[in-house]
Write a structure and sequence with these properties.
about 230 residues; about 45% helix; magnesium ion binding; 11 helices; globular; Rossmann fold; two-stranded antiparallel sheet; hydrolase; alpha/beta; about 15% strand; DNA polymerase, domain 1; 6-stranded parallel β-sheet; 2 domains
Length: about 230
């Protein structure tokens, strides 16, 4: 296992950095916000806590939560326009600095494509660099499930995305940054995992992550070291 010093060197020389989105790049958990918007906030928040703690499989938790919410296409669009996701302080500067250094930045999320693409546009991250879950709707806009073929729909899916990126782009060093168990699971194949606790602290991640930060300024400072 890499030491903290080695991990910092991997981060400074990374070809690609993958960020989780909910409670990492943005302050909220997108699915919880959607649930509140649709009137089933408390029940879904409890399911999210269990999923993030790693006690149930991600796909099972996602299926159950969406089965409760059953969001329509119109509700999803209205959520984004009325309550746009709030970027975590420091993320805009960090992504900008990574881009300046020629580092590819990806958003790898168990959240929903439409919300994550909105976040990506704010950070000048191309849509092609977004990996997230896709909601499905009937022709009348009613909820019709989600695309279960997306790798991010299941436990271990973020690791599959990183493996795919390494194969496609021949990246030598890929860093994964996130707040949850599904992010930590992605290392390996990620070469380094950085736990993030700036919005919410997941006990399991804080205890197990060798490199744990609570503000993106800490990573900006690392990049200024060289």
């Amino acid at each position: 296992m890499a030491s903290l010093l080695e991990m910092k060197e991997i981060f400074r020389s990374a070809d690609a950095v993958c960020f989780d989105v909910d409670s990492t790049v943005i302050k909220e958990e997108g699915i919880d916000e959607l649930a509140k918007f649709c009137g089933v906030g408390d029940a879904v928040a409890e399911m999210t806590r269990r999923a993030m703690g790693g006690t149930v499989t991600f796909k099972a938790a996602l299926t159950a939560r969406l089965g409760l919410i059953r969001p329509s296409y119109e509700q999803v669009q209205k959520l984004i326009s009325d309550n746009p996701p709030q970027l975590t302080p420091g993320i805009r500067e960090l992504v900008s600095r990574l881009h300046q250094r020629g580092v590819q930045v990806f958003l790898v999320s168990g959240g929903f494509q439409s919300i994550v693409e909105h976040v990506a546009s704010q950070l000048n991250i191309p849509t092609a660099n977004v990996f997230a879950n896709r909601l499905k709707f009937y022709f009348n806009g009613e909820y019709a499930g989600f695309d279960e073929t997306q790798p991010t729909a299941e436990s271990g899916g973020k690791g599959k995305v990183i493996t795919h990126l390494k194969e496609q782009f021949h990246f030598k060093k890929v860093v994964m940054i996130g707040d949850g168990a599904t992010d930590m699971e992605a290392c390996p194949p990620a070469d380094c995992f950085i736990g993030f606790g700036g919005n919410v602290i997941r006990k399991q991640v804080k205890e197990k992550a060798k490199w744990y930060i609570t503000h993106f300024d800490e990573l900006l400072k690392e990049l200024e070291e060289r």
